[in-house]
């Protein structure tokens, strides 16, 4: 028997990086998992990696129509939901003077509006004792050049974690956040930076980290699983899994 036998899980942004690593961890311990993504290549690769035990669904985390469809699919496949991991996200690098309205709206829709309405639509399917985890970022507490809109979206998401936790507590649903620092290459590929700048950004992050390295997606996944199933008296908290970057 697995540690999470029969647990019903949805992971948005679950086809790469931290989301995929979390799906693998939970599937390996007996959970039933549905992951979402947007791009055909990552959806196909996730299907190949996760196998027939997982449901891989195309869904845009910023589309309210897709969020409605996701809720309907979850109700059809699972009936109810034990854990919701709202992980979909990426950062687009742009200086203040070069920020466009389109990129600004993209960052806020992806990291704030989408998760808000995902919780609105999926929380009704969650019984007492279930949990939600949101993926925030060090950019919500540290001013990182070129990531102002991304950081604003993640800071708003951190605020939502507290508001959701307060509002859903009477229904027995816990809400927490994980703030990771990982060398998540698929997310960086969508950052708009050329490869040389991506590599330089990762090198700089690693050098400035107290542990002199970046986290592995598998390490972040363990923290997510802890918040989801083991941290039963933890609510409204943001857990930094960043090697001490925001704490030391």
Structural overview:
α1 links the parallel β1 and β2 (32-37). The chain has helices at 17-28, 40-50, 64-77, 101-122, 148-168, 185-188, 195-208, 217-230, and strands at 8-12, 32-37, 54-58, 83-86, 131-135, 174-180, 238-241. The mean pLDDT is 94. The protein is globular, with a radius of gyration of 17 Å. With 248 residues, it is an alpha/beta fold. The protein has one domain: 3-Layer(aba) Sandwich (Rossmann fold), CATH 3.40.50.720. The protein has a 7-stranded parallel β-sheet, with helices on both faces.
Summarize the structure.
With about 250 residues, this protein is an alpha/beta fold.
Would you list the SSEs in sequence order as H and E?
A: EHEHEHEHEHEHHHE
Termini gap:
40 Å
Structural class: alpha/beta
CATH topology group: Rossmann fold
- What is the multimeric organization of the chains shown? single chain
Mean pLDDT: 94
Order of adjacent strands in the largest pleated sheet: 3-2-1-4-5-6-7
Measured as a percent range, the helix fraction is 40-55%
Biggest pleated sheet = 7 strands, parallel
Q: What amount of the residues lies in strands?
A: 5-15%
Given the C-alpha coordinates, what overall shape results? globular
CATH architecture: 3-Layer(aba) Sandwich
Count of discrete alpha- or pi-helical segments spanning 4 or more residues: 8
Question: What topology does this entry show?
Answer:
Layout: E1 8-12, H1 17-28, E2 32-37, H2 40-50, E3 54-58, H3 64-77, E4 83-86, H4 101-122, E5 131-135, H5 148-168, E6 174-180, H6 185-188, H7 195-208, H8 217-230, E7 238-241
